[in-house]
Amino acid sequence: MVMNKDKFKKIARSAAIIFLIIGIVIGRPSVRGGEQNHDIAQNHTANIVSPIQATPLESHLSSDIEELLGLNDILFKIEQEIAQEAARPNPITEANLYRLRDFEYLRRQFFISDRNTRLLPKDIDVDAFINADLSICRGSNPGPRVLIFHTHSTEMFADSNPDNPMDGVLGVGARLAELLEEKGIETLHDTRRFDMVNGVPARAGSYERMEPYIRQVLRDNPTIEIVIDLHRDGIPETTPPLVTYIDGNRVARIMFVNGLSRRYDSDGELEAVPWLPNPFLRENLAFSFQLQLEANRMYPGFARRVYLKAFRYSLHLMPRTILLEVGAQNNTMEEAHNAMPYVASVIANVILR
User: Can you name the residues that pair with 271 across neighbouring β-strands?
Assistant: First the structure.
């Protein structure tokens, strides 16, 4: 029997995906069994209250590679040319705001998109974004105003001990929580490990496992106004470490990520991803826009350009949600921790206005 080309492509793609998923599970940093419930609570850290259970992939997944990997779970492994492009310093600040009103200039200089999506003029209103009041309520009901969590808690740095969860992004999140508290911003740090199932790293499905737990946290803490999903990026090994110098300190560079819930179809036309609605797309674009402008103003070269992805990740939970990438796998723990005072200052300047 002769197999037609389309059928062969589908079979080949499915086989490649299976090997990729196996590689994801095997290739992640090792964490000892049972540490999924390891209590690393600190003053600003939510206790891990229950095991994270695996959930089945959604029934509507097709043979399309992004869908078959599990909705949002496209690895944060940026293609080499995009990673190198995104690492360029972003010179755009409020001082040259007039140039931002040129959409094509803004799209090229302020943002970097993966090749599966595209920013549209209707997404951005520069003047409205600049003037948006994104400040938090103060002096009202007591309770945390900021939530920090980690969909990918096993992300580590070049010199991390993979057996110590606090050597990775969990420790960076704890440091950021402390610094925000010092600025008078009450912060809750949730350390549950959504990319661990039964003590084993399980990257695929982590966004789906994360959502019900974090939504419960938001229901239990209605004072929360800002949500930060803190990651570290993954870049090609040939890319130099993402570092800059601030106040004489060697600092990991940061990147804000937005999910557009929009991708190119097989005919090359942009379409919404219907099962991944993002009702807060504009609000969260405005939030990352203000944070980026403030980072550029305060610490030029600290923030990489805002990265736009086709899916939504955790960016549909509420308005003023950000996905923050701190350095990459070839940065050191010290560089990542050195970045947190500057991240805290940028956030405070935007939300305490």
Answer: 263
